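Encode chain A's predicted structure.
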Amino acid sequence: MSLQQDLDNLKKIAGDLFKAIDKMKTARPENVSTKPKIIDLSMLVGSDVLCQFSDNDNDWERLYARLKQIDKDSYPFIDDGFGGDWRLCRVAYNHWQAYMTDEQPIPDGYMVELMYDGGIDTEALESSGWAWAEMDIKAYRVTGVADGYIHPWEAKDVFAQDGAGIEDTQKDSEY
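Encoded structure for chain A:
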């Protein structure tokens, strides 16, 4: 091929690329949702996963306890360690927790760091989308919420003052 043919091919490829980019800018995807997913905390009820509790999103208690129950009221999260009723609950952040199961211990939507026999993987991974059981994990640490996810109380229409939209677990912990 000659240099001129190579340049002509590159121009055609660049032209096609720019056309595709323009289509993407003007396209309105019908099936793509920009609405964030709500983290489902119900799987934490009765589990061994330590949580943090708060009545104010800016003041997370340093107490760690397990989630005993979720009720429909203005303080829906009940811990099993201190008997408190709390407005907010999340998996404990920046706290190493032992991994002693073959299942995903925390809900989808969190970012985690993993500890193996050989060391720590400090690259935060999303808690969903990979096989926990197939990895040699010894412990994990939640570092935050993954992009595209929010906690229940952050969802304007889901977490009303009276707890409307929150499913009662009616499930008590065995602890």
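The helical segments are 3-26.
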